Amino acid sequence: MSDSIYSGLTMLGGATVQPQSPDAAVLERVPNPNPGDAYVVRFTAPEFTSLCPITGQPDFAHLVIDYVPGDWLVESKSLKLFLTSFRNHGAFHEACTVGIGKRLVAELAPQWLRIGGYWYPRGGIPIDVFYQTGDAPKGVWIPSQDVPGYRGRG
């Protein structure tokens, strides 16, 4: 591939500033090097953090993002900065998880995407949130996310 297809990238290989909010974060994309093949890309963020919109207390989740690319892949550094932009962002678990999935769909137009948000307890109740764009493409191996439910000390 030519270097010119990467000339629009602003984060890869250079110093970057942490976005102050998800809306301010830029998700960059690169061409899929295998556009004729259906395969799964997985990102795992085991230390995702956001803030409770009511109390301002931190919330923690283990996110697993799976997608079957179309013409584009998400550039991983921009994804990392996007996810860390939630650290000072107040939103409920559902808004964070579904919002991340929808933002990726809007930027990448994948063939299929799912995100599992495995949230640690708030008020003694873990809240797990799942979003998916539809049925997975036929013939693509979609591995289980294998994130165990929260057990506490029991």
The major sheet is characterized as: 4 strands, antiparallel
Shape by Cα distribution = globular
Task: Report mean pLDDT, rounded to a whole number.
Answer: 91
Q: For this structure, what is the CATH class of the domain at 27-132? A: Alpha Beta
- How many helical elements? 2
The H/E string reads EEEEHHEE
Strand content: 25-35%
How many strands in all?
A: 6
Which percent range fits the helix content?
Answer: 10-25%
Protein name: NADPH-dependent 7-cyano-7-deazaguanine reductase
Catalytic activity: 7-aminomethyl-7-carbaguanine + 2 NADP(+) = 7-cyano-7-carbaguanine + 2 NADPH + 3 H(+)
Pathway: tRNA modification; tRNA-queuosine biosynthesis
Organism: Azospirillum griseum
List keywords for this structure.
single chain, 154 residues, alpha+beta, GTP Cyclohydrolase I, domain 2, 4-stranded antiparallel sheet, two-stranded antiparallel sheet, 2 helices, 6 strands, NADPH_dep_7-cyano-7-deazaG_red, cytoplasm, queuosine biosynthesis, NADPH-dependent 7-cyano-7-deazaguanine reductase, EC 1.7.1.13
